[in-house]
Amino acid sequence: QRQLNDPYVAAAKKDGYRSRAAYKLIELNERCQFLKPGKKVIELGAAPGGWSQVIVDILGRKRSGVKNSIIAMDILEMDPLPGVEILTFDFMADDAPNQLKSKLPEGADLVLSDMAPPLTGHSQTDHLRIISIVEAAYNFAGQVLNEDGCFIAKVLQGGTEQKLLGEMKRRFRSVKHIKPPASRTESSEVYVVAQGFHESGLTAIQDS
Hints:
single chain, about 35% helix, globular, 7-stranded mixed β-sheet, alpha/beta
């Protein structure tokens, strides 16, 4: 019933998006303006492809003779999408980061993570699982992001851990927690948006 009454579900069908999650990325980008043509993007937890569609719409499709600049990875299979190179891997597997790096040896300008682990219903266990995935995505972003790059990840239960948040604030110019309107009110998800990557570290704007 919730799905039937959800305006974002209806909008996704009308606009041709694979999931209502597309509007979360649209709303995040409207606020923070991180999707710009010519950027090299790695998307983690991409299936079924709603975010990938938005990225392609804004960045443009693959041009003749130019290597694809949008790489999407998920443990689940995903239907092909023109302009996106899809990898079916578990990001938490040992060889997954190297697989991604090999696709964009010149680095990435944006790393997006909409990954979430299977939840058990036990709050402490689920919290640890979520933090583990966010930390893995962040560590990977630190290895591949170009100067002034951006990292965005889904976090739950009150936002990013303080230790990790402190590290982000040292290495990014701006770090914010944002709950886009398309995120259901009853959901505990929020997104951390870290912009202005600096490999050597710097003093970032306070979280908001």
